[in-house]
What we know:
Strand order of the largest sheet: 1-2-3-6-7-8-9-10
Strand content: 5-15%
Distance between the termini: 64 Å
Order of helices and strands: HEHHEHEEEHEHEHEHEHEHH
Radius of gyration: 20 Å
Number of helices: 11
Bound molecules: ribose-5-phosphate
Largest sheet: 8 strands, parallel, barrel
Shape: globular
Amino acid sequence: MADLDDIRDGREYGVGVAQRTDGFFLKGSNNLDWGMKDRLSRIFNPATGRTVMLAFDHGFIMGPTSGVERIDLNIVPLIEYADCLMCARGVLRALVPPTCRKPVCLRSDAGTSILTELNHNVVIDIQDAVKLNASAIAVMVSVGDAATEAETVANLYQAVDAGQASGIPVMGVTAVGKDMARDARYFGLASRLCAENGANIVKTYYTEGFEKVVACCPVPIVIAGGKKLPELEALDLAYRAIQSGASGVDMGRNVFQSEKPAAMIQAVGAVVHQGLKPA
Ligand code: R5P
């Protein structure tokens, strides 16, 4: 029951003091709705504007590749060091503790595996992402691959429509099309295409001239780690990407295939958030 007596009149109106209206810290995100910004603020640390996503969605196309054979043993101990988790829904439901309090970037397209031809995918129903409390959904786009370019761009478009309706940001994941040169021209085109189609985050690969890729992409870019490298090289890759303007990493194999994965992800975090130079 509301108290109807002793209703006190307000006194501190701050008349003459302009209302504080902050801009949003993430590139290209200022005009998004509150729910989108809230979710993005869980993925990207507002203090640094950057993120360390731990990617372990590899099994959905590769099966139990090295480092993700046992998510409970290999990945769960690393969760505390990640800013965001990227995985598919089956593993999320089966093995990721809902008590971990980490935002999830849900891998949201699925179809073909490494045994056939990759990227003939469909997008999962956004309602499942809502039920899983996803902070973002990730959809692959294979720019330059004649067999799958059109359907994967359509997948992105569909995901953006659904994400906008539910306040869930979309991460466009650039798959390198067959016969494409892995250079700044290609990654710049692929990243821009994702952003133009409405992606709120783009995941792509670092390359020489990456500052141009970042400059012409209107939303934050995170880089994938790619195949396992010696630890120092992987950290240097992350360092160069951050110095070129990347907003973080979405790294998998270079973390979970490391001899010391917990130390590795913490080192990646120091590079990403503190700008430390690997040596
Ligand atoms: C790419 O689509 C995969 O889904 C991985 O999430 C991504 O490549 C990041 O993992 P890694 O650092 O192992 O390349």
